[in-house]
Amino acid sequence: MSHQGAALPAAPAREKESTRRGTTRRVAPSPGGGRWRQRLEVVFFVSPALALMAVFVVWPVISAVRMSFYRWKGFGPMDDFVGLRNYERVLTDDVFTQAVTHNFIIVVASIVVQLPLGLAIAVLLNRRIRGRGLLRTIVFVPYVLAEVIAGVVWFQLLQPNYGTVDGIISAVGLTPPEQGFLGTPELALPTMFVVLTWKYLGLAVLLFLAGLQGVPEELYEAAQLDGASWWQVQRRVAIPLLGPTIRTWCFLSMIGSLQLFDMVWVLTGGGPANATTTMATYLINQGTQGGNYGIAGAASVVLFVIGFVMALAYQLLILRRDSASDR
Amino acid sequence: MRSKTRRAALAALCAGAMVFAAACGGDDSSGDGDDKTITWWHNSNNEPGKGYYEQVAKDFEADNPGVTVEIEAMAHEDMVDKLAAAFQSGDLPDIYMERGGGELSDHVEAGLVRDISDDAAEEIGKVGGSVAGWQVDGQTYALPFSIGVVGFWYNTELFEQAGITEAPTTMEQLYDAVEKLKAADIQPISVGAGDKWPAAHYWYYTALRSCSEETLTDAVGTLDFSDECFVQAGEVLQDLLDTEPFNDGFLSTVAQEGATSASGLLATGKVAMELAGHWEPGVMQGLTEDGEGLGDKTGWFAFPAVEGGAGEPTAALGGGDAWAVSEGAPDLAVDLVKYLLSDEVQTGFAENDMGLPTNPAANPAVSDPALADLLQVRDAASYVQLYFDTAFGTSVGNAMNDEIALLLAGQASPEDVVAATQAAADEEK
Q: pTM value?
């Protein structure tokens, strides 16, 4: 073979090639083995992720659903089956319906206020102005800050009499609310929303700025050549092209508002007089604090269903356009 | 092909879930180890308490050759979380802390706590009547080692400034003091209503003054709140609220964290008084830069008498911590608990200002003047009522506290408080 190989260098290569092809062909008639191997490979590589998901997502969901059908104090055997009683209690509890209302107020207010505000800031910061990098950073910093730290800082700023916010308001000659912004039930939720806007506006601006980078320069130029003003360019060219980004941001904002917990917990704990309870704070209050794990389980299932239905509806009705255009 | 992969993945997922379930379920052997090792959880994670308990454990080991005591000293909140998880799994340490009342009886019902009535009969006798909070159906399940009472801590200097010469003993006098303090431009009382339980303590006390001991004892047993006096309690609190005695923003004020908390406001001289337990001097010390708290300006008076109330004016609201032994723990664990309640260990406990000892032999060893005074008040009290939220159990207590917080916010009536408490109690039956 060796001398032949020297005389005809190309031959062995071709032979090898054919052998390899042959091997493939030889296996091909018995499809089971290859597929099984492939499947095993899939299972092997996917199983760590699946195991993690099973332990940390699927299992808790299953146990929450199971818990919601029992009256259980968090220890001892779970054997007091109560059927749908916990769901009945959750859905007829004024505090829970208030909590759902608060969640939806935040969902709507976030989109109505943060969307135009975020767009305006993004469009402005997209211009070539001095200190643009610095301004972008300033807008984005609150989002990077840990939520609990931001909450504690705001809690101190908003203290009645001794807080900075009260100081500023008094300094300009206005009277701050006597019980403070967080201690007055009517003001607590709006105050919460202001803090949330401060915290999350950065994300909206960042996403919109990224979206604006994707708008081709030629379109601006073409519009300008046609005599469009800066305002018209933004309104007719930039913002329509931002559509997919805006829709994605709305989705993220909606889900975040439904799950709202950290900031509320730090600032008010759901108070005063349940003025800022959300579904998540209701869960904690009933579950770990009240020892009513069944009710907390039922509330968490309700939260899951609300979130799931809204996410699905949003995907089907609004985001479908974006994903369809990709294909 | 795709659906098959999916099915395979699903199978893998199910298998994973089953393995996990098996792993969780199969841990019945309870990691207590052998009979010679005792695990002990406590919350004295600062000096001198931490070191003192280590020494106690060493002494116990020396007296019982071959025995090892494994201590886990944790911050209080960590311990509460860890205990909650331990109760769920049923894998408890041999010795742990119980707050008594409904919480304890739930644990007893679930078969998690060991009955020590006979084994520790001598110590139970020494502690006396206050062990009642840790008894279920006449059996004792834990030995209280520190019991404190709640009352008004006040700033003597600010009282003087406002021209108040004597601590109030009736509600009328308290209203009077509130008025005088306001006239002197001093915020009268701070309350951490944001945390709910400090607000609830007001209602507990007005109930304690409005209801007879018998009514309250019955209520703990039967969870029946139909007696008129419970509504009266809310009305008395309503009267106090009408004088607007609390600090600005009290509905969102927290109890103990930071200078703007209820304790912080008292410690820094921003308010004149606060209703709190025996922990208050210690908390205030931690909230002032010099570590002194109010120092010599610290004063204390009992919750005032309610005119026309059926309750005893000398009854006190309080609570404490007790050592409990988990079911299935070795006998040696009971011996260690008995040792912890001995004259010797309780005296050391008192000398280190770790709390208010329950063994009378340790009383003379309490050195802190504020605590020594409080000890006298406690021992002179006609009876010490366990905090209602603890006594009635977590679920009822939580519902009650929520509604009392609403009363303070002006969004619930005295009747609402009783109705909400009763509704939560009916769910328990």
A: 0.83
Give per-residue burial for B38-75: e unless 16+ CB within 10 Å, then b. Answer: bbbbbbbeeeebeebbeebbeebeeebeebebebebbe
Residue in the structure block whose two tokens are 């032999």? B361
Closest residue in A to B21 (Cα) is A59
Q: Where in chain B is the domain with CATH 3.40.190.10?
A: 37-149+318-386, 151-316+387-428
Last residue of a domain, one of A37, A67, A97: A67
To the nearest whole Å, the CA of B240 is away from the closest chain A CA by: 18
Does A160 reach chain B within 8 Å, measured CB to CB?
A: yes
| Alpha-helical segments (H) within chain A | 2-7, 10-27, 31-53, 59-67, 85-92, 94-109, 115-125, 132-144, 147-157, 164-171, 185-213, 217-225, 230-233, 239-241, 243-258, 262-267, 279-284, 293-314, 320-326
Q: The domain at B37-149+318-386 falls in which architecture?
A: 3-Layer(aba) Sandwich (3.40)
Residues of the domain holding A44: 2-67
Architecture per CATH, B151-316+387-428: 3-Layer(aba) Sandwich (3.40)
Nearest C-alpha neighbor of B315 from the set B179, B214, B234: B214
CB A273 within 8 A of CB B406: yes
> Does residue A37 sit in the same domain as residue A91?
no
Strand B384-386 versus strand B316-325 pairing type: parallel
pLDDT per residue rounded down to tens, chain B (429 residues): 344 444 444 444 444 444 444 343 333 334 445 678 999 999 888 778 889 999 999 999 999 988 999 999 988 888 888 998 898 888 899 999 999 998 898 899 889 999 999 999 988 988 888 888 899 988 999 999 999 999 999 999 999 999 999 999 999 999 999 999 999 999 999 999 999 999 999 999 999 999 999 999 889 888 899 999 999 999 999 999 999 999 999 999 999 888 899 999 999 999 999 999 988 888 888 888 888 888 889 899 999 999 989 998 999 999 989 999 999 899 999 999 999 999 999 999 988 888 899 998 998 898 888 888 889 888 888 888 999 999 998 899 999 999 999 999 999 999 999 999 999 999 887
* Cβ separation B409–A273 shorter than 8 A: yes
Q: Do A75 and B88 touch (CB under 8 A)?
A: yes
User: What residues of chain B, 49 to 88, have a C-beta less than 8 Å from chain A?
Assistant: 84, 87-88
Which chain B residues in 3-32 lie under 8 Å from chain A, judged by CB atoms?
Answer: 4-5, 8-9, 12-13, 16-17, 20-21
Query: A271 and B13: CB-CB below 8 Å?
Result: no
